[in-house]
Amino acid sequence: MMQLELSPEPLNEKVDLLIRNQIREYTNFIMKQIMEAKNGTVFSLNLNQVEAINASGTDEIIVKPIRWMQENIKEHDKYLYLKNLSGVTEFDHAYNIGTVLQYDKICVMVDDPTIPYLGYLGGSRDQMKTVLDQVYLHKIVTAKDVAIYTNKHVNTTSTQLSQLYKKRLIKREEEILPEGGRSYIYKSLF
Which of 13, 48, 120, 164 is the most buried (most CB within 10 A)? Predict the structure, then answer.
């Protein structure tokens, strides 16, 4: 696991991510860290450095990196999750980020038991959420495990797990079976 920094120099105070032209230096540094990291890296973006964030800030530091990870999934197996979002009485990071992600049909995991993810899961939201919840509850699962936990068919849970993996919400490892063929093992990001 690797924590993404907004700047190469430590920030002495919280920053506002509101004006796109001022945010791009952070975007460039975040993307540099992501591109230089080894495959399989899980990045955390700690938002305790951020005072206020709007659509421009969300697009620059969350949407762009996640889209890049999704588009480059075969060459760069990397993941991103958020932590330390502000509370609703402050700047309400969750609302501002979630609104943009929902519109852009992007989803990101959040290391917070009250807000496990933000954005658009796709498909039937409750079914995808049920599968995602099982991965984070058990930490390591197969499609067969999730089928048993949720009382669904294996091919359905396999498809849903694959979709969650492509969204970069869970990790996937291939396992070669002794009798031939392959199976996937899915893991939570944290």
Answer: 164
